[in-house]
Amino acid sequence: MANEAHFLSTSLPFLSFNKAVLPEFRQSKGLSFLVNSRISRSKQTRASMEMRGSGGPMTSDHSAVKIPHVLTVAGSDSGAGAGIQADLKACAARGVYCSTVITAVTAQNTVGVQGVNIVPEDFVAEQMKSVLSDMDVDVVKTGMLPSIGIVKILHQQLQVYPVRALVVDPVMVSTSGDVLAGPSILAVFREELLPMADIVTPNLKEASALLDGVKINTVSDMHSAAKLLHDMGPRNVLVKGGHLPDSLDAVDVFFDGEHLYELRSSRIKTRNTHGTGCTLASCIAAELAKGSSMLKAVKASKFFVETALDYSKDISIGKGPQGPFDHLMNLKHNSGRQVRFNPSDLFLYAVTDSRMNRKWGHSISDAVKDAVQGGATIVQLREKDIETGDFLEAAKSCLQICRANGIPLLINDRIDVALASDADGVHIGQSDMPAHVARSLLGPEKIIGVSCKTPEQAEQAWLGGADYIGSGGVYPTNTKENNRTIGLDGLKTVCLASKLPVVAIGGINISNAHAVMEIGVPNLKGVAVVSALFDRECVLTETRKLHAVLTEATAAAAAAAK
Ligand SMILES: Cc1ncc(COP(=O)(O)OP(=O)(O)O)c(N)n1
Ligand SMILES: Cc1ncsc1CCOP(=O)(O)O
Ligand SMILES: [Mg+2]
């Protein structure tokens, strides 16, 4: 294995630069030559392919699970902000398998591109064949295609091994301004690559280059460019306006041949934008591989990039002007988090209601004290009709009770009250500010819960950095007006789609809590209740009863799972 892993060497030149593009690359000093260790590699690959083809153990495994698969055909970025490395991270973040065909190896960092070494065309072809002949690729995404021959190879291979979609990011210039595919390649991009593409995603410079230098300075110019590019053959066009002068928003123009859409998102002020184009295209490919429509894939990808940029705006990697960002959004979101949220805290989630407390003559802090003593594992103050000052005072006194009992206290809707009282977090709904904005305001250590009725909302909550979701109304309720009931089936659908732990809410009480917990989905961690605890004379007794029911239900579920 050691000799096979030996890929870089100083002896044999693997390839000289392609003559057509040579002048456009900056020559680097002391470039390593790629050495040919192909013979033993390809033998091994062929051997394993033959084994699969002959119906060996791999092909007879009927229980195998198909995972959405993107193949990226792109260049390697040693700084790992863009290129193949960005594609791998983006696909991983979107839950999709990503295989790779490397077209060029670049030496680059946050300062710029110091060197480029193109992989020989026959070896690009060999990589492509290895993957496409063996693996069930759904979508191919292209990035840096540095020679005419490589574009032609892609064309041929996709004839032999058709895939569901081709996403073309027509990479020509890096974010640092270095040329990655020069003018000589434009003709083959126009004539062979674009007609094959299901979507092409140029930035303004690339769109202009593909359109013979036409000026694109306004959103209206972007509309015209999208239409002209569409005439070249791709099924869809996304012209990215990230570099549009004088624009407060980041506006992209999407054209599907019929309708033009302006897709806007807030412009994030950060130096960490290296690799956004690669990431966006990979994310679109990943969403298509999962079965999304094109417009939905584009919108989800734009939101993903915006969220990742927002999370990563303050990270510092490298000394140059263009830093990479954190695709997995962990550097800020998770690491350094001192008190990590424990999903089992969702077990018996008590949500207060001032109207009910008034009805029974309970103060908020007495009601919370009783719920905590009765076994509540987390408390949310949902005070819809009190003054801000009173809310803050209530939050401070309830916080003392909860802290003394080691129980988190969350504030419903009011991020300002959560910040001012130093509560443990917030619970926000779909009409409140997005989770990622709440996360920016609250920082990495606070708990954020989001109400979700659909798998899509659950995905957005996860992307936005939420810790859990609340899903319901499971049953009809009088506590929240005009609230759609999703039933046990709706709850189960959301739980199965959610990457976050879930607490069920809406009309849950001691008679039906067992049925809720019985749906048997591991990330359903508990129930959130208002009236079953607080619209009662004795909060302590009711909480104890519900705790007992939940304990019984969980024990029964554990026994059934054995
Ligand atoms: C745990 C939990 N889940 C859902 C909700 C509902 O929040 P929201 O949709 O914002 O509605 P209001 O509670 O604000 O009326 C919740 N509060 N807690
Ligand atoms: C706040 C909320 N969100 C969805 S249903 C609901 C009300 C739950 O109250 P109850 O437990 O009294 O039905
Ligand atoms: Mg709310």
Automatic annotation (TrEMBL):
Residues 348-533 form the Thiamine phosphate synthase/TenI domain. One of its GO terms (biological process) is thiamine biosynthetic process. One of its GO terms (molecular function) is ATP binding. Pathway: Cofactor biosynthesis; thiamine diphosphate biosynthesis; 4-amino-2-methyl-5-diphosphomethylpyrimidine from 5-amino-1-(5-phospho-D-ribosyl)imidazole: step 2/3; Cofactor biosynthesis; thiamine diphosphate biosynthesis; thiamine phosphate from 4-amino-2-methyl-5-diphosphomethylpyrimidine and 4-methyl-5-(2-phosphoethyl)-thiazole: step 1/1. One of its GO terms (cellular component) is chloroplast. Its cofactor is Mg(2+). Residues 77-321 form the Pyridoxamine kinase/Phosphomethylpyrimidine kinase domain. Keywords: ATP-binding, Chloroplast, Kinase, Magnesium, Metal-binding, Multifunctional enzyme, Nucleotide-binding, Plastid, Thiamine biosynthesis, Transferase, Transit peptide. Pfam families: Phos_pyr_kin, TMP-TENI. It is found in: Plastid, Chloroplast. Signal peptide: none annotated. SUPFAM superfamilies: Ribokinase-like, Thiamin phosphate synthase. It catalyses: 2-(2-carboxy-4-methylthiazol-5-yl)ethyl phosphate + 4-amino-2-methyl-5-(diphosphooxymethyl)pyrimidine + 2 H(+) = thiamine phosphate + CO2 + diphosphate; 4-amino-5-hydroxymethyl-2-methylpyrimidine + ATP = 4-amino-2-methyl-5-(phosphooxymethyl)pyrimidine + ADP + H(+); 4-methyl-5-(2-phosphooxyethyl)-thiazole + 4-amino-2-methyl-5-(diphosphooxymethyl)pyrimidine + H(+) = thiamine phosphate + diphosphate; 2-[(2R,5Z)-2-carboxy-4-methylthiazol-5(2H)-ylidene]ethyl phosphate + 4-amino-2-methyl-5-(diphosphooxymethyl)pyrimidine + 2 H(+) = thiamine phosphate + CO2 + diphosphate. Belongs to the thiamine-phosphate synthase family. Essential for thiamine biosynthesis. Bifunctional enzyme that catalyzes the phosphorylation of hydroxymethylpyrimidine phosphate (HMP-P) to HMP-PP and condenses 4-methyl-5-(beta-hydroxyethyl)thiazole monophosphate (THZ-P) and 2-methyl-4-amino-5-hydroxymethyl pyrimidine pyrophosphate (HMP-PP) to form thiamine monophosphate (TMP). NCBIfam families: HMP-P_kinase, thiE. This is Uncharacterized protein. It comes from Malus baccata. The lineage of its organism: Eukaryota, Viridiplantae, Streptophyta, Embryophyta, Tracheophyta.
